[in-house]
């Protein structure tokens, strides 16, 4: 994840921090405005996304029609502050929910180099996948049209997987993780995102050792106690 972040253009690196540090979906990463960040409350308000309906971008509620509040880590808050100092939020106007919906405007935190909204297809093909290739995670070869291989596992969703896996590995409550990710069913979170992280085995050993040591003492085994 950190290698991919480093390979992204500077204006998109904070997007990786938000994705990996707060777990929103890609459309939700593209959609936050200034009012989404509550630094004092250390909270990210996930209240909208940019989605595409019949090829047209629109603002809409997050998937499932539910907004949510997600803990905002200090590192991500600082990354967002630095990003907004370097790249000022831009007012973007789009229809709400459908191409025929009423026009609404928000000062978006993340915008493209030309100053407009970040288009998913452009970002994936010209920013995200080249960063994956630079990090050595996918082949650098492209087809005759200059496109990378299409694969679901090569998408920005990997940042969301990083977030959920890291929280679960750290012992966070599955119900809380599910809430932060906007899942209706905690079982889905556990099935899709839970897998052993590289340090999990050692942490498991230390956790059990600590219990035994409290009972039997630091220098005495269970045989001595018996």
Q: What's the end-to-end separation, in Å?
A: 49 Å
Let me know the average pLDDT: 89
Classify the helix fraction into a percent range: 40-55%
* N-to-C series of helices and strands: HHHEEEEEHEEHHHHHH
Q: How many strand units?
A: 7
Strand content: 5-15%
Q: Give me the number of helical elements.
A: 10
Structural class: alpha+beta
Rg, rounded, reads 21 Å
**Which CATH top level class of the domain at 2-150 fits?**
Mainly Alpha
- What overall geometry do the principal axes of the alpha carbons give? globular
Q: Enumerate the strands of the largest sheet in spatial order, edge to edge or round the barrel.
A: 1-2-5
| Largest sheet data | 3 strands, antiparallel
Per CATH, the architecture of the domain at 2-150 is: Orthogonal Bundle
CATH topology of the domain at 2-150: hpI Integrase, Chain A
Q: Name the poorly predicted regions.
A: none
Could you give the topology of this structure?
Layout: H1 2-7, H2 10-22, H3 26-30, E1 37-38, E2 43-46, E3 49-53, E4 56-60, E5 68-71, H4 74-86, E6 90-95, E7 103-108, H5 120-134, H6 157-169, H7 174-181, H8 186-193, H9 200-216, H10 222-225
Antiparallel strand pairs: 1-2, 2-5, 3-4, 6-7
Helix pairs in contact: 2-4, 2-6, 7-8
């Amino acid at each position: 994840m950190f290698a991919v972040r480093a390979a992204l253009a500077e204006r998109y690196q904070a997007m990786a921090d938000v994705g990996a540090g707060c777990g929103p979906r890609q459309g939700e990463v593209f959609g936050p405005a200034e009012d989404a960040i509550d630094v004092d409350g250390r909270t990210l308000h996930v209240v909208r996304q940019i989605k595409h309906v019949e090829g047209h971008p629109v603002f809409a509620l997050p998937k499932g029609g539910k907004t949510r509040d997600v803990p905002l880590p200090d590192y991500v808050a600082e990354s967002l502050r630095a990003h907004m100092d370097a790249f000022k939020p831009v007012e973007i106007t789009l229809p709400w929910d459908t191409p025929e919906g009423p026009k609404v405007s928000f000062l978006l935190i993340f915008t493209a180099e030309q100053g407009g909204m970040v288009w998913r297809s452009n970002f994936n093909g010209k920013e995200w996948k080249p960063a994956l290739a630079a990090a050595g995670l996918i082949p650098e070869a492209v087809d005759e049209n200059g496109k990378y291989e299409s694969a679901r596992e090569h998408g920005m969703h990997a940042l969301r997987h990083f977030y959920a896996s890291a929280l679960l590995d750290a012992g966070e409550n599955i119900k809380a993780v599910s809430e932060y990710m906007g899942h209706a069913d905690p079982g889905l979170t556990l099935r899709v995102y839970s897998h052993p992280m590289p340090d999990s085995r050692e942490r498991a050993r230390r956790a059990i050792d600590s219990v035994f040591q409290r009972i039997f003492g630091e220098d005495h085994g269970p045989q001595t106690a018996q």
